[in-house]
């Protein structure tokens, strides 16, 4: 292999693109990406709605600061100039058919968010659901005794905070999520909604990447490693990758970037020899949640121009009763954001749902979704004239065979430090020296940034740098650095 090892990157999501582009920038020449679907981007994806493109996957920069390579790149390219940053009005309606006072809703909502904003550690086994229910009750008692509002309304609003958190996590219930989920989290700053622009990131990152080295529509079925496979020029390679269409790729190193959902769903025999037991255990223990978006396009808006979101509050819902019960899916599509600016997107709402509801709505027709959501809007807003959307576009991330959900979460009783085990590379078991045959990147391998776009990108950089160090090629000072190597 000498100075020119053959490297295959499996998956063209942000981790794969990050790994491949970084490897080229570090001087590796023989780098190929193999991707199952017909487009690059993975969980960064777009769809056409009317006359504009919308992001069907990621749309928020979690941490809009120079520390975040996603923010920096889009900023440098001038792509963030027309992003709407002004806060709009947040409308909250009650199932009894009235609107809640904006002051009360935002005041209580912020207090609820405050409960969750702390970074917890040292609570092994505890879950967010119990903690949030207990703290919410205390908060509701305080606010009620200071004469802010009825306890029932306060708990109702706090339940919305829990619902929104479930969308951030994707898990079926807050009770199944570790309270210490973000103990290693790197906070890069405020969130920024860049809807309709995130997909440009893929195009920008792949700008100079040689087209012939990005092989699309090649689903990998099997990874044989720790072997001796004869290739051209009588070279022997330790790794042989087999695709569904019969193609085979021999290489010295493969960087696996498929989602945790795909790793969970893959038969153990996808790897031959099998993955080591601790890696299989890690894949099993970590959670892979789901969220979906429902784009609702209207002829005319039934909300004012300055509205940013519409939330629907069910009577009797409290932080202790939160669920994503699929049989109650009509009640569980409660949070809608307005796509802004109107001049670009027209009159479009995005309905958000998570966990079991997100999985269930993938089985419904868009007409069913339209009918249920319209019925709720009419009831909550006491307005029978609210129109049906002219078009509904619903994402199906769980059914995407090469994704199988949205992002990783940490179940109660699990410490995110096990993500380091997932990131740990595999070397030949026959040789005493490490040869890094199989490497792992992807958001699920980043205990400090899982579930994010920058986490995926930085995990790819990390593995490229790992190979670079292996070949004694330290990263040039000018190259943006990744997170420390997971061991
Ligand atoms: C609906 C949704 C909303 C989100 N919102 C945000 C957000 O606002 N902000 C944020 O920071 N993050 C968000 N995320 C998370 C973010 O999108 C992901 O963390 C990130 O894109 C993951 O990148 P990745 O490269 O690790 O994995 P992926 O994007 O899943 O890439 C893996 C690639 O591997 C390919 N692949 C899988 N199996 C095979 C196979 N057998 N053979 C060949 N190729 C294969 C897949 O097709 C895919 O292209 C969201 C995700 C979803 C789904």
TrEMBL record:
Residues 14-467 form the Amine oxidase domain. It comes from the Eukaryota. One of its GO terms (molecular function) is polyamine oxidase activity. Keywords: FAD, Flavoprotein. Pfam families: Amino_oxidase (PF01593). GO terms for biological process: spermine catabolic process. The keyword Flavoprotein applies. Its cofactor is FAD. PANTHER family: AMINE OXIDASE, FLAVIN MONOAMINE OXIDASE. This is Amine oxidase domain-containing protein. It comes from Alosa alosa (allis shad). The lineage of its organism: Eukaryota, Metazoa, Chordata, Craniata, Vertebrata.
